[in-house]
Amino acid sequence: MNMPRAHLLIVVAALLAAVIGFLVFRDAPPPAHQAVTLLPEPRPLPAFALVDQHGAPIDEQALTGRWHLVFFGFTHCPDICPMTLQTLAAVRGRFDGEGSRQPGVVFVSIDPARDGPEMLGDYLAYYDPDIIGITGAEDAVAEFARAMGVAVVMGEADAQGHYNVDHTTAVFLLDPKGRLAGLFRIPHRVDAMAQDLGRLIGSRG
Amino acid sequence: MSAALRAALTAVAALQLVACAPVPEDGVVIEEAWIREAPPGARALAGYMQLRNQGGDPVALLFANSDTFDRIELHQTLHDDGRMRMVEVDHVPLPPGQTVAFAPGGLHLMLFAPSETLRDGEEVMIELTFSDGTARDLRFEVRDVRERR
């Protein structure tokens, strides 16, 4: 093959690539979120009247003014709950110094019988003292979890009184109006979550 | 592979050799034994490790005991349909030639009621009992694995 023909082939190939590229990408949507599943429309958060880790009353109005990440768990959970709290604290840390752009983290105990405010406070402070802990009367917590669609199954206590609580692992995302905007399913990865949040906060915060 | 990476991997391999040196050739090799540091007052901790059965016969991990904890159970975290369940398993099979990992989000030693608050860098002895009648005392290192902010 002589040189001019080779050149021609390269030019044709390049043109073809350009045309295909144009056809494929001209209608491409903006880059998709990696980790979050957004609801088509944000939904109001179910009303609740519970207490925080300082024993002060807290309701849904407290979860406004910034984006919040909400996780349901319990302190006697040694594997998934620490992993998730660690991840959420790290995600929050990525927004240090950004004022109201920094998302809040909320941990709702689905085991209020064992997780009183003091226990919850000590536990959460280890990960980040700014995490909002929520506990309260057992029936009120159960009602809030149910309204959020969180499946909670209390296990049978063994001879030593220990029991497990099976629960939903999704992390809920609230917008600054305190509405349920979406959720993060497992696996929870710091980079992907922080990137999605950065985009959402930038566009709607 | 860069020279630096090769050197680092060699160093890691050497460390692992040291860590499991006194293990019989055909026994169960246990590596990376660690306990997740927990918040103060936490009543349940998780222990992780990797077990490799170097022998030709299947064996199983049956029990774990330690003076540092009230009680230890073998647990498995299961995920189904967005829900997390933690179940106790009766034993953990270790097929010949395979590695079984106790790792976050899966199998773990459920460590109940530590006698003291365990801090990063501390070591705890845990005895593992196997189905072939052998028992091994294993050193677990407590690790703080929070991401620094």
Protein architecture, described:
The complex is a heterodimer of chains A (205) and B (149). With 205 residues, chain A is of the alpha+beta class. Chain A is 36% helix and 24% strand. Chain A has helices at 3-25, 80-93, 117-127, 138-147, 190-204; strands at 36-44, 49-52, 57-59, 68-73, 104-109, 132-135, 152-154, 165-168, 171-174, 179-184. In chain A, helix 2 packs across helix 5. The radius of gyration of chain A is 23 Å and the shape is elongated. Chain B has one domain (25-143): Sandwich (Immunoglobulin-like). Chain B contains one helix and ten strands. In chain B, strands 1, 2, 3, 4, 5, 6, 7, 8, 9 and 10 form a ten-stranded mixed sheet that branches. The two termini of chain B are 31 Å apart. The relative contact order of chain B is 0.23. Mean pLDDT of chain B is 86; it is low at 17-21. The interface between A and B is medium-sized, with 35 and 30 residues.
How many separate domains of chain A?
Answer: 1
Which sequence of SSEs, written as H and E, runs from N to C of chain A?
HEEEEHEHEHEEEEH
Q: What is the name of the CATH topology of chain B?
A: Immunoglobulin-like
CATH class of chain A: Alpha Beta
At a glance:
Chain A is α+β, with helices and mostly antiparallel strands. Chain A has helices at 3-25, 80-93, 117-127, 138-147, 190-204; strands at 36-44, 49-52, 57-59, 68-73, 104-109, 132-135, 152-154, 165-168, 171-174, 179-184.
Write the layout of secondary structure elements.
The complex is a heterodimer of chains A (205) and B (149).
Chain A: H1 3-25, E1 36-44, E2 49-52, E3 57-59, E4 68-73, H2 80-93, E5 104-109, H3 117-127, E6 132-135, H4 138-147, E7 152-154, E8 165-168, E9 171-174, E10 179-184, H5 190-204
Parallel strand pairs in A: 4-5, 5-6
Antiparallel strand pairs in A: 1-10, 2-3, 2-6, 4-9, 7-8, 9-10
Chain B: H1 3-19, E1 28-36, E2 44-53, E3 59-65, E4 69-80, E5 83-88, E6 92-94, E7 99-102, E8 107-114, E9 123-130, E10 135-143
